Amino acid sequence: MEILVSIFILSIFMLVSFGSLSRSLIVEKNLHIYNKALEVAQSNFERAMSDKSNQDLNIVETDCFDDDCFKVNIQKTINSNKKMIIVNVFDSKIPKRFEDVTLQSEL
Question: 79: which of 3, 22, 55, 85 is 20 to 30 A away, CA to CA?
């Protein structure tokens, strides 16, 4: 929920900061790609959370929005009885500040 609120606030800031309509449309399209990547990441994160095995897990999923594709990598690692889930989103079309987004959660 916090991520969606942050994206909403960021999208408003980005749309206000770019004066021309064409730039705003590009930013809006990039935000749609980023939102789609977050949806895929969230579903795979939930999948990794529900995995009860004590084995490492690596999920790589490629998805597309319109003609733009991105990759989501979910890793669940277990070290010293600690479980760590790491989510990485990679896409060269996503604005630079969104590249290599990493979310971590310790279980």
Answer: 3
User: H or E stretch including 10?
Assistant: helix 2-17
Q: Which candidate, 87, 79, 91, 94, places its Cα nearest to that of 44? A: 87
In single-letter form, the type of residue at position 53 comes to S
| pLDDT tens per residue, range 49-67 | 777 777 787 777 777 767 7
pTM higher than the cut 0.90: no
Helix (H, G, I), strand (E, B) or coil at 23: helix
Q: Domain count of the chain?
A: 1
- For the record, the structure tokens of 75 come out as 């890793």
* Domain carrying residue 57: 2-106
CATH number at residue 61: 3.30.1300
Cross-sheet strand order for the sheet of 57-65 = 57-65, 68-79, 82-90, 101-106
